[in-house]
TrEMBL record:
Catalytic reaction(s) noted: oxaloacetate + acetyl-CoA + H2O = citrate + CoA + H(+)
Origin species: Floridaenema fluviatile BLCC-F154
The protein's annotated pathway: Carbohydrate metabolism; tricarboxylic acid cycle
Name the UniProt record assigns to this protein: Citrate synthase
Swiss-Prot/TrEMBL keywords: Transferase, Tricarboxylic acid cycle
Stated family: Belongs to the citrate synthase family.
Length: 379
């Protein structure tokens, strides 16, 4: 066995062989099963893209219709899950509520038959169908309202917005949300996907796989960055303050949220698409001063940090879009999770196909042959 040198964050070390997605960080290319993200954002929809990611091919019309119909059928969540969620503190973060609810699904669907394609499909359908309902239900219940029943006549993104806002979304917002879900659905071996694969490799149930990945996605260096971007833009407050703010950050060596990426050394292609969508939304529903601030910040960061390969990542413009749709900031990461469940499940399925439990090694830096110190001799 080759012994590798220790690399913090496993940077550059392959953790799996995967045929699901590919990133070329130097050229700013992202492909799902070989199809460029720009093409999927233009021509596909989120459920079709989910099918592509999980089953490795674009569905035929009957296959897609069957998948959509199964998802519609399973959108509702059990009363006992709703009751459980009602006991969550209203002040709790929706990502924590989502993690707990996703894990709780495992209590109700505990039969584990990982070699059976029908079991895999049923778990995929349940998780894809119920996660948006759980996110919307927590949002309504923490504000003292009853959850809204899903509507079968609405598409995946449109129904989610309907359950969240208790009113049918306009078609542009529904389509933009659908594209946002496509863009966030999968992204090679990032932290939450790695987490999902490690959990999957123990042959536990898929609800535990998704719950562990949700927990990992929540951190500010991963999915949580889109919330921090809005806080940062609000703190900047005006276009004039962009450069002084940036100077101050660089002096303090603090990170600019929504910028930089372990893999991309150019602008993240998803950020480019999201920026275009933001412009469409602002054109239709009125401009947003925070968008002007964001564009100026991108310009200033490129001037100062472009040479280090620091450009906007997927989190930079997504929050502005969600904000314009009236979505509270702390739901941005749960929306990321709704999308990424597709990628996590694709990796779960792929991991099961040739499983070997993850068991890396470590570089031990501690003591040897120490002795137990009696309490009175400790200091
Ligand atoms: N602002 C300012 N400088 C940055 C930033 C940033 N956002 N990102 C990286 N740098 C600089 C670092 O200071 C470092 O400079 P140095 O070499 O002079 O010390 C260099 O670029 C390399 O940075 P690392 O932190 O080593 O890069 P790493 O690959 O470990 O980090 C990460 C990537 C975590 C995304 C980082 O860029 C970051 O913290 N960004 C802000 C948070 C964010 O937007 N996260 C979302 C990422 S996308 C996603 O998870 C969906």
């Amino acid at each position: 066995m080759t012994v590798c040198e220790y690399r913090p964050g496993l940077e550059g070390i392959p953790a799996a062989e995967s045929a699901i997605s590919h990133v070329d960080g130097q050229r700013g290319v992202l492909e799902y099963r070989g199809i460029k993200i720009e093409e999927l954002a233009e021509k596909s929809n989120f459920l079709e893209t989910t099918y592509l990611l999980i089953w490795g091919k674009l569905p035929t019309k009957p296959e897609l219709e069957a998948f959509e119909s199964e998802i519609r059928y399973h959108r509702r969540i059990k009363y006992r899950i709703v009751d459980m969620m009602k006991c969550f503190p209203e002040s709790g973060h929706p990502m924590d509520a989502l993690q707990a609810s996703a894990a709780a699904l495992g209590l109700f669907y505990s039969r584990r038959d990982l070699h059976n394609p029908a079991y895999i499909r049923a778990a995929v359908v349940r998780l894809m169908a119920k996660i948006p309902t759980m996110v919307a239900a927590f949002q309504l219940m923490r504000n003292g309202n009853e959850p809204v029943r899903p509507r079968d006549d609405l598409g995946y993104a449109g129904n989610f917005l309907y359950m969240l806002n208790e009113r049918e979304p306009d078609p542009l917002s529904a389509r933009i949300m659908d594209i946002c879900l496509i863009l966030h659905a999968e992204h090679t071996m990032n932290a939450s996907t790695f987490s999902a694969r490690v959990t999957a490799s123990t042959l536990t149930d898929p609800y535990a796989v998704v719950a562990s990945a949700v927990g990992t996605l929540g951190g500010p260096l991963h999915g949580g960055a889109n919330e921090e971007v809005i806080a940062m833009l609000e703190e900047i407050g005006s276009v004039e303050n962009v450069r002084p703010y940036l100077d101050n950050c660089l002096e303090r060596k603090s990170k600019i949220m929504g910028f930089g990426h372990r893999v991309y050394k150019v602008k993240d292609p998803r950020a480019t698409i999201l920026q275009g969508l933001a412009e469409q939304l602002f054109e239709k529903f009125g401009s947003d001063k925070y968008y002007e601030i964001a564009v100026e910040l991108e310009r200033a960061v490129e001037e100062r940090l472009g040479h280090k390969g620091i450009y906007p990542n997927v989190d930079f413009y997504s929050g502005l879009l969600y904000r314009k749709m009236g979505i509270p900031t702390d739901l941005f990461t749960p929306i990321f999770a709704i999308a990424r469940v597709a990628g996590w499940l694709a990796h779960w399925k792929e991991q099961l196909e040739e499983n070997r439990i993850y068991r890396p090694t470590q570089v031990y830096t501690g003591y040897h042959e120490s002795h137990y110190t009696p309490m009175e001799k400790r200091y």
